[in-house]
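Re: the request from the purification team.
They wanted to know what the chain is likely to look like in 3D before they choose a buffer screen. I agreed to run a prediction and write the result into the notebook, where they can find it.
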Amino acid sequence: MNAMIYECAIIGGGPAGLNAALVLGRSRRRTIVFDDDHGRNLVTRESHGFLTRDGIRPEELKRLGREDVAKYDCVDIEPKRIIRINRVTETHYELTTADGSVYHSIKIIIAVGLKEKLPNIPDIEKFYGTSLFSCPYCDGWELQEQPLAVIADKMVFDLAKKVYNWSKDLVVFTNGEGRLEESEKSRLEAKGIIVREERIDGLEGKNGQLSNVRLEDGTLIERSGGFTTPLWTHAADFAKELGCKQNEYGGITTDEYGRTNVWNVYAAGDAAQIVPAQLIIAAGNGSAAAIGVNGDLTNEYFDRE
């Protein structure tokens, strides 16, 4: 058991969690970050849209982030997974790790991110993160003007419209399950976008590079990459267990400084934002949540000291 009571415990060491730790460290707050290094971007080779770090590998961004945080000796980073959070008193929480260690903290920032469930298509995981992606803003530039696939069973129309900005050579695949209205289909086809509603039997290619989409009747449609819509769920259920409200997208409802409806619980990054899900947005959320934590601690401590 760790007898110290931290001022803030951050669950998750991605861009949101590390940026929150950086701001809290610079605010001289005793902070601990828990990170078991199982982020959803482990399959991603390059991350884009992050100013000064465009094209960086996610693990390199994390390494540089940890270097920044390490400058502040009031911040600890533990490579452990939190499995349980209990409210001990009105003023602090108890956090238990997978190895049985127990930590205490006044405030908590939930920055666990999301986990993805890919569409039910054989071999899709072999291409995801290399030539199939979820975010056109992150990876559209690299696929511009190529013959692309849009594989989705939800929000297919909106995704196709976005991808059209990077390539006009599109085939939309609903995999027999998509929710595409006839009016939407007509609008896509009017732009020269082909719509295939049959089930996909599999994907073909080598070393993660897509070459063909194979339909259930054996038809091969040549594509060199594309975009899909995974089902995103929370990487951990802490917010729900603690009673945090959710927004319309399934994210954790917060104010502009990361505060949830539960006292002393804050949220940041993809777990709160859901969409859009970008590293730079997650990092900004982390900074805002840390400012919320520090501001609240300041107000709570000022008249006591």
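For the purification team: Helices lie at 15-26, 58-70, 136-139, 156-163, 182-190, 238-242, 270-273, 279-302.
Please add any questions underneath this entry.
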